[in-house]
Amino acid sequence: MTCRVRLCWFLLAVWLPALTGCYKSDIRISGFDGEDVCSVVSLGHGWRELSTAYHYEFRRAAQGSTELLVGVKEPVVPPVYFAKKFAFNPSNPARVRPATDLEWEKATPIELSQKSVAKFNYRLPTGVVTEDPLPRVPEIEYVGKRFPKRGEFWARADFGAILSPDGRWLAIQTYDGKPPPPEHQAARGYLPGEGRFFVDLYEVATARKRVTIRGEFEDISASEVWQDTAWLMERYLVLQFHIRKEAFVLCDMGKLR
Questions:
Q1: E strands in the chain
Q2: Which of 213, 223, 215, 162 has the alpha carbon at shortest distance from 189?
Q3: pLDDT per residue over 49-107, tens digit each?
Q4: Helix, strand, or coil here: 150?
Q5: CA of 216: how far to CAs of 56, 140, 160, in Å?
């Protein structure tokens, strides 16, 4: 095989998946258990070229509207926004429409909250590991109540238990999976590259689990699953599961008030 032919095959292997969206890496939602408050908000093929390095920004529409707007910003300072933006009503998240630049400019940015109340004492590994270094405690304790986990391992300490801004709801994030073999850890890190993940939504006052989000991840670090989970105002949990930002889970806990 000539060098030119090898180069052609290399370019096809690298660029064809990017052009067609045929990536093996994936984060999928398997289903929801418990109260009927969660929906998948699909943005179609809005940002097929993106990776997990990019983040959503949500905005509250101008006065008189109940819609929320969502866009994607490049991780630079000051932020650079992609051209496409979308609008949706949280009461009917299945209906998503394109938003205009004028609507986006008039809308008010909403700060996402990722306050974690998990208090894990651990140190990140410095060499090859054969199991997750996080403590395998079965539950966390908060305000005198116990909140059990669903998966075998906890998300990192800063994402393991995310409290809603009003203190009413607690999102517990855990997963199942095995660390990659030692020969792959230099490139992929020590966290599992495939498995199942769970987000359990608890009512803090009663320590009662109200909702569970179940999903799977494949050929991607487990840390990519939960790093963008956040509370949007007091009532909405956003799970940004799609690696190219084409969909996210929205849980309206205000329905349970």
A1: 26-34, 38-42, 55-60, 68-74, 80-81, 85-89, 92-99, 108-110, 112-113, 139-142, 145-148, 153-154, 161-163, 169-177, 194-203, 208-218, 230-232, 236-239, 247-252
A2: 223
A3: 555 567 889 999 998 899 999 998 887 888 888 888 999 999 999 899 999 999 999 99
A4: coil
A5: 21, 23, 17
State pLDDT tens for residues 153-182. 888 667 889 999 999 999 999 888 877 667
Residue 36, Cβ density class (10 Å: 0-12 exposed, 13-18 middle, ≥19 buried): exposed
For residues 27 and 187, what is the distance between their CA atoms, to the nearest angstrom?
A: 20
How many Å apart are CA 247 and CA 86, to the nearest integer? 11
Task: Kindly report whether the peptide bond that precedes residue 78 is cis, defined as omega within 30 degrees of 0.
Answer: yes
Distances, alpha carbon 29 to alpha carbons 73, 218, 243, in Å: 24, 12, 12
pTM passes above 0.70: yes
Tokens matching residue 147: 């909140």
162: left (phi over 0), alpha (psi -120 to 50) or beta: beta
Contact 175, 190 (CB under 8 A): no
DSSP letters, 74-93, are ESSSS-EE-S-EEEEETTEE
Between the alpha carbon of residue 221 and those of residues 191, 194, 197, 226, 255, the distances in Å are 6, 7, 12, 10, 33
